[in-house]
Design brief:
Layout lengths: L10 H4 L16 E2 L17 H11 L4 H25 L3 E7 L4 E6 L5 H7 L2 E4 L3 H13 L9 E7 L4 E7 L3 H11 L6 E6 L4 E2 L8 E4 L3 E4 L3 E2 L2 E4 L9 E4 L5 E8 L5 E6 L8 E2 L6 E2 L11 E6 L3 E16 L2 E9 L11 E4 L2 E12 L3 E8 H8 L4 E2 L1
Parallel strand pairs: 3-4, 6-7
Antiparallel strand pairs: 1-24, 2-3, 5-6, 5-19, 8-22, 9-10, 9-13, 11-12, 12-15, 13-14, 14-15, 16-17, 18-19, 18-21, 19-20, 20-23, 21-22, 22-23
GO molecular function: serine-type endopeptidase activity
InterPro entries: Pept_S1A_streptogrisin, Peptidase_S1_PA, Peptidase_S1_PA_chymotrypsin, Streptogrisin_prodomain, Trypsin_dom
Family: Belongs to the peptidase S1 family.
Length: 389
């Protein structure tokens, strides 16, 4: 993706390659932070993590050093503004998209009277027909039809930029999607159908970021360290599965796992495997400060043991993906590349934790799409706390 390009189209662009699972291992000293969201002042382009992320953004987003620095500053502001307006507007909030070309945050509203509030707060308002809540409701009704890859459906979910639910189907299966919309009884005007040539898949058996071993049978990536272990992808192991560090010196147990449905897991580490506040990157450790959610259109970076540190853009949230192993809901779609061995690893927007790798399509030679499970629902579900520094 070029620096001045807003965003690629959702699932079709993403599913055009082979998926990857990513992973980051935290290293260094740490302090505690509460699990749900960030209670730490957001880092700027002058933060300790800035040079690490900016180098990867220059490489992957085709930016100059100055463009990367400016974009980080503007995204920092947009992230705060997005969270502020989400709370302030309530039901009128219809989602938001960051435009990397203009560095502006566009906030959709379903009530035209709310547009002025958005403008006064410093964002660009857009009055839409459906908005985030209605699109999520439409996606839920589509999902209630119990469809999957066998029906030619690769995935579906809201696209805030289009104000539509996008259904991605395998080539030649458009009629299946049209029938799905009819059976769900949803407004066809709120749905767009796209085709892809490749199925999404998982990569639990290959390492990513700083790897960990799964009961001697495979490898996944450590996600974000918590006060007593770490979060990762649910498909990396069922509850009760023994895991260990790559060198065998540390051990732990999967104490919570959900897959399919969600793709979230949590590991409790034994003594000798100490959680920290950092994750690895090609340029050195990156310190985690919290988990404030970034808006669509914002840049995002991830690390994996197979493919290293790569950056791209948040394309859409609340996506449902039809893996051969089952349906997973609530994923975030990105245009970041990845490859087998990256499952479970960390995603960061500056110093804010975003999620753990689920799967996708494509590779880091031709590009592709990768989906991640947002981190805050994992922290809330299992009552664990991020380690922050």
């Amino acid at each position: 993706m070029k620096g001045q390009e807003l965003r690629k189209s959702p699932l079709i662009t993403a599913l055009g390659g082979s998926a990857v699972a990513l992973g980051l291992l935290g290293l260094g000293t740490a302090t505690l932070a509460t699990g749900g969201g960030s209670e730490v002042e957001t880092a700027s382009a002058d933060s300790p993590n800035a040079s690490t992320q900016m180098e990867a953004m220059q490489r992957d987003l085709d930016l100059t050093a100055e463009e990367a620095k400016e974009r980080m500053k503007q995204e920092d502001r947009a992230r705060d503004l997005d969270n502020e307006l989400r709370s302030q507007l309530g039901e009128a909030f219809g989602g938001s998209v960051f435009d990397s070309g203009s560095n502006e945050l566009t906030v959709s509203v379903t009530d035209k009277d709310a547009a002025e509030e958005v403008r006064e707060a410093g964002a660009e308002p857009r009055v839409v027909t459906y908005g985030q809540d209605r699109l999520e409701s439409i996606a839920d009704r589509i999902g209630s039809q119990d469809v999957g890859l066998d029906d030619g459906i690769a995935g579906y979910g809201p696209d805030i930029d289009r104000d539509a639910v996008v259904i991605t189907v395998l080539e030649g299966e458009k009629a299946s999607a049209q029938q799905l919309v009819a059976d769900a009884g949803v407004d066809s005007e709120a749905v767009e159908i796209e085709q892809t040539s490749q199925e999404p898949r998982l990569y639990a058996d290959i390492v990513g970021g700083e790897p960990y071993q799964i009961d001697g049978t495979g490898r996944c990536s450590i996600g974000f360290p918590t006060t007593n272990g770490f979060v990762t992808a649910g498909h990396c192991g069922e509850e009760g599965t023994p895991v260990s560090s790559q060198d065998g010196s540390g051990s732990g147990t999967v104490t919570g796992s959900s897959f399919p449905g969600n793709d979230m897991g949590v590991v409790e580490a034994d003594s000798g495997w100490e959680p920290t506040s950092t994750v690895t990157s090609d340029e050195g450790p990156v310190t985690v400060a919290g988990s404030e959610e970034a808006p669509e259109g914002a840049s995002i970076c991830r690390s994996g043991s197979t493919t290293g540190w790569h950056c791209g853009t948040v394309e859409s949230k609340g996506q449902t993906v039809e893996y051969p192993q089952g349906t997973v809901e609530g994923l975030t779609q990105t245009d970041v590349c990845a490859e087998p061995g990256d499952s479970g690893g960390s995603w960061l927007a500056d110093d804010q934790a975003q999620g753990v790798t689920s799967g996708g399509s494509g590779d880091c030679t031709t590009g592709g799409t990768t989906f991640f499970q947002p981190v805050n629902p994992i922290l809330d579900e299992y009552g664990v706390e991020l380690m922050t520094g």
